[in-house]
Amino acid sequence: MKKPVSIDVFNDKDFPVSLVRSMIIKGTGVDVEELKEKPIIAIVNSQTDYNPGHMHLKTIAERVKEGVHAGGGIPFEINVPAPCDGVTLGHIGMKFVLAQRDLIADMVETHVRSMRFDGMVMIASCDKIIPGMLLAAARLDLATTFITGGPGSAQIRFKAGMKDSVDHKSYTDILDKLDTATCATCGACEIMGTANTFQCMTEALGLSLPGSANVPGFHSEKLLFARNAGKRVVEMVEEELTASKIITEKAIENAIMIDLAIGGSTNATLHLPALAYEIGMELPLELFNKYNQQIPTLCSIAPNGPHGVMDLFVAGGVPGVMKRLSGDLNMDELNITGQTIGEIAEAAVINNEEVIPPKEKPHLDQGGTAFLKGNLAPEGCVVKQSAVADDLKIFSGPVRICESEKECLQAIAEKTIQEGEVVVIRNEGPKGGPGMPEMLAATMGLELAGYTKVAMITDGRFSGATAGPCVGHISPEAADKGPIGILKNGDIVDINIPERSLNVQLSDDEIAERLKNYTPRTPEIPPGYMKRYAKYVSSATKGAVLL
Fold first, then answer.
1. Domains identified in the chain and CATH numbers
2. Which end of the chain has a smaller Cβ tally under 10 Å, C or N?
């Protein structure tokens, strides 16, 4: 069998160095003679006991290893961190989460390069881990498969008062609302947040077995897919089917279209440009606007509507969505099976047209994410328009400045925010946070406090769970002397999602004068990695990549 990379470890021409390497490896208890003949596969696992999205991945990894052995390869498991945005909500820990995406990519890349693996199976569930592994897959260009941890179930599904909805907006009782956000099982939070968005993206890009991404984490079918992912990667090594033949410009375009159709997280506008950067492609965020006119928000998955990701699984999963978008997708792109996207879409079965409706009868007429620009965001910003009520898509109001999320949470607690205001949370961008923390605690705080007509704009980011007129990723950020840094209490901000604009009612001369006299706040950065991160990280509109 082919050993395109690991031959470096067992090349007898390197004698006596190769003998020393073999002597070291003997300590693992593996048959070195077998290793000399078979491809060596890295099982890249993000198992952790600390969050439900990843707590079950050890079991999945064991099935992957079985599949690798069955396929004729030798598996070795390696591990990476699994940060959870939910655990870090509302405190300093959130500043370190996005930064781990690039750490994970670097760890996988450097370790796999050093240990000379022939292929990889990536196992992950959540927000920054799947994107980090995608970046590493693009860099390494090996035979690579993904097996996602799948969605979990929300606690509301186990309550007698469930109203055929997992969306918190469907409930008035506070305990019911909380149960829509409470994880009852292993697997990623059931809404179409960043975790499930990027589980779907692995299929959209062609890197997961068709139909595997949305299988719940506790479902037996997930184990079968795990075994098959292990078998398949060995075949891919033999076929020389590597990541560069799958992760192409057209595959990334497919991912954008599927993201818009499922109402995916705005964090896709961070991670897909970062992936594009790895393959030498520039991905301007205007592409999201190009495609959101062509691709509707097909599915009504929370926070866009009542359904959960488990409903998407039952209805036909990502292949079902592909079937609905057959006239739009780049159908010749490859999946790891060797099939084209067109072949997968043709074979897909849709079991519930309410969850995956025809394109002519979508949940919403336009795709989920919109890219805005204006004098307040010269480089742009993003909003999850599918989760904004129609009467709030055009919003004007006076500014209420919060210099951090912490300050905003305090204002919510003290009830000093007024209906009709535009809350501005700044100094939370990639450099200014640093780390571009998620503002979900602030948006949840506004809702739980009973506010109904408050908008929020930030140079930080939002969760895929965020609903309402919440505009994030404002670039340039305050730390880069962006106009968001010179806003004052009482300035009038205009958010116009239909016109894709974000402006402050100030003249160009006034903006220029304020910027001339503006000195960005110096963030408090602990010693270590984040100092390097803040120094080298790019803007949000470029994917917050390290340059």
1. 38-347 (no CATH), 370-542 (3.50.30.80)
2. C
